[in-house]
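It is worth pausing here to work through a concrete case rather than discussing structure prediction in the abstract. The textbook approach is simple: state the sequence, then state the predicted structure, then interpret. We follow exactly that order.
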Amino acid sequence: MNPTLVAVVLSLFSSVAYASAAVAQERLAARSAGSGTLRLLARGAWWWSVALNASAALLHVAALRYGTLTLVQPLGALTLVAAVPLGARAAGRRVSAVEWRGTALTLTGLAALLVAASGSAPEKTLSLPQALAVAGTTAAVIGALTRGARPGLRHATGSGFASGVASALTQTVTVAATDRSDSPLSAQVVVVALLVAAFAAGGLLLSQTAYQGGLGAPLAVVTLANPLAAAAIGLSLLGERLQGGAAGLLLAFGGASIAAWGVVTLSRSTPEPAAAPTGTGPKSPADDDHPVAAVLALGAHGAAYEPPLLPRQNGSGRLTPR
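Step two, the predicted structure:
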């Protein structure tokens, strides 16, 4: 089977699983507000959502084995797209016109990227010196971005970069570990796996900090910075190429711009909550969940496209980190 098709299918299933888990976790957290974390952990539905999250991460790792970084990482935006109808259904309301527009723009842009970024399954990996150089450079950039900065877009950019690098390193681990010509526990695999863990955790912490300043803009920045960092590594160090020469480059740029427009539209959409039936008493806090906000229960993609759960503050009307 065509490796590009396999990567796309795996990414699609991964995004749906991520979105489903995120919607479930956010609604469970909203309904359990004030009852304590231990009570939430005792609920079987919460553990099913955790299993969905783990399955989504494994599917994303598998997609990185069959597809290039320039293809798989942008497809992480499908999590936002999948969260829209799932969240709307869970909240008992219709998808708004703004959400439909953002979904259409995102899918159109990703379709253009799919044509330009398709290619054979990845074979080249980052050498250990290259991985260490990428890790050091990224850490320095993140440090410069976030030093002394207030929670907001700088931290969101750092989170996206950290998660994108984690995905690039994950691809190296996956390809190297499945290469029968070398040991699956070589020094390269072990060291790079440790770097993956460090950058995935760093991306998670940075995203938590970023969302203290609000949801919409930081969410869009995280979603866009992630594939940008991964694509830069793929194109500069892993020999990945866009299809079609100059025309393919223009197509990829146009697709990325349209998809970015769609992501920003989705991240800023604030649908009206479903009206509570008359005579049924006060509305549950979970009834006005924002479907796109639910994906923040994930982390920044990649074996890392996974931020923390964001409960709704009573009376504040917006989502903020714990």
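Step three, interpretation. The radius of gyration is 19 Å. Residues 276-289, 296-313, 315-322 have pLDDT under 50 and may be disordered.
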